[in-house]
Amino acid sequence: MGQTQCYKILSGHLVNGVLEKGESISIKIDQTLTQDATGTMAYLEFESLGLDKVRNELAVSYVDHNTVQVGFENADDHEYLRTVADKKGVIYSRAGNGICHQVHLERFSKPGKTLLGSDSHTPTAGGIGSFAAGAGGLDVALAMAGIPFSIIAPRVVEIRLHGALRPFVSAKDVILKVLEKFGVKGNVNTVFEYTGDGVKTLSVPERATIANMGAECGVTTSLFPSDENTKAFLEAQGRGEDYIPLSADPDAEYDDLYEIDLSALEPLAACPHSPGNIKKVSELEGMAVNQVLIGSCTNSSYMDLKKAAAILKGHHIAPTVSLGVAPGSREVLLMITEDGTLETLIKAGARILESACGFCIGNHQSPGTDSVSLRTSNRNFYARSGTPSANLYLVSPEIAAYSAITGVFSDPRKSDADISEIKMPERFIIDDSMFIKPTFSLDIKRGPNIGEPPANTPLPERVKGHAVIKVGDKITTDHIMPAGARLKYRSNIPRYAEFVFESVDPEFSKRSSSYRDKGESGFIIAGASYGQGSSREHAAICPMYLGIRAVCAVSIERIHQANLCNFGILPLIFRSEEDYKKIDQGDELELVSPLESLESGEFILHDITKNIDIPMELFASEEQKKMLKVGGRLNEVRK
Ligand code: MIC
Ligand code: SF4
Q1: Which residues of 127-142 are buried (b: 16+ CB within 10 A; e: fewer)?
Q2: Which residues, in sequence order, are CB contacts of 340 under 8 Å at separation 6+?
Q3: CA-CA distance, 512 to 476, in Å (whole number)?
Q4: Is residue 539 within 8 Å of residue 560, measured between CB atoms?
Q5: DSSP character at residue 60
Q6: Residues having CB within 6 Å of any atom of ligand 2
Q7: In angstroms, what is the span from residue 212 Cα to ligand 1's centroid?
Q8: Of 16, 70, 190, 320, which sees the most CB atoms within 10 A?
Q9: Which ligand is in closest contact with the Cα of 62?
Q10: pTM assigned to the model
Q11: Ligand 2 probe mutation, 35, 63, 101, most atoms within 8 A of CB
């Protein structure tokens, strides 16, 4: 039987385990990337391992998330990142160079390589045929130390593309279609592999848009073959030597098949407040729009901006709309400057934003009260924009640009622009001067905002306390650990912990710490798909700091589950979903014989208030059980 592309790459990187679906395996990681919001903690963790320098093939540290510097904290973090990168052998991509995933795709991603990034959209590099996964900062720190990365050998779903997209229908619509089919939960330990004759009609940046938002389905990664288009992209980036052809064997067997006829697709949008809430644009036409933002790691490539500009050309944005454009990288910005696209955007009334995450992470451009914001980014989670009452729709650059002119949700197929001539350039402007190569000579600078990574205590003999909070389904890491205005505390755990569950229950932090101060262990009770979204390990570290010892949920997403184990919080799943309903917030709870239960994986949660026993199953591998026993991975590796 032939192999899938996914298993070809995994077998070439297998270090431990049997490469069979569902088995726990560990793989060698070739490349790593970090971004500043998760990176400070990742490098503090790397430092605590005591190694002189990184051991993997390529490590890059990007500064793209916290670039709005209100107060000293972000600038101090950047200095820490610059100096620690120099000392430990990491390439430093300065603020202004662009968004990690876009820049990595342009300058470093290679077909057939493995990439681990401390950001959930690392799978963007799947667009070039790299096996690229997101993980918590600690897992990336360990990968930089040359320690293999553990995953469950995934099930592989074939997504077979036929035909070609019609004008004004784009890669964003392909992935929104995939989201419509697969949703935002229940796709753990799965890889999407794109095949079929439609693949060759898509350029690498278009493939990257599709691979990027596979993260919203919760898959480990998405993969495109490496073919003539990949070769052309790498050559245009002056990296022709990085090309290798790679694809699944023709007789490869997949676990599932989903077919999409590209030529039948129409413009789609993800509606509030989930990337999986898909509607046709024709159903939304005419709705007044207040803000349009084009950018983010999903849709900020040169071609994306060229298409948006072609639609805007000769028009001016509606007086009721604010249009912001954030080019994904400095390379994109240089390209659009040189060919006049930037001028077109400015003339149309666009506000040119920094090449960074910016609006996507709620760092700026919060929309007005009750307003409608159209964005080309990948997440429209509740309150992420900084304005809880706003309604965010995720759309293609084509829809965004055309709606900015009309002032209402509009179908771009009604635009009079001719975008058929827009082609991939044969050569991009290559300027690597915003990368700093390590000299191994600088002293590491630490501002007052930078603390030590906190470690947990070993699992105690008694785990007794309260259900500090009970939440519903699809709780994202943005609910648990807000970004936006709070992002600058990423390096300061005691301060950041004050904002855990801020948008859900602003009293959570105080309540949890007061239980903790009485010596109790806290419990979080959650519904399905807990911890979806970002890779931010702060969504485990800060609750840990507040005394949380167990998350009892209907289901938990992959990256968050790993982060919980890494920091010694028990991920427990209800054996019977119905039991979730039996516990109320504030109930007194105890885990019966936690140490013995850890061995067997079978826990009994005794609800003292209701006097009932609830069977729970530990969601952890044998390796993770060991870290849970000692209070987390740091305690284990530091020994
Ligand atoms: C996101 O898009 O949610 C982020 C911000 O990039 C996160 C990382 C973080 O929280 O720092 C992610 O996707 O992992
Ligand atoms: Fe940055 Fe947004 Fe991409 Fe996250 S999703 S890496 S915040 S642009």
Answers
A1: bbbbbbbbbbbbbbbb
A2: none
A3: 19
A4: yes
A5: E
A6: 65, 99, 119, 121, 296-297, 357, 360-361, 377-378
A7: 12
A8: 190
A9: 2
A10: 0.97
A11: 101
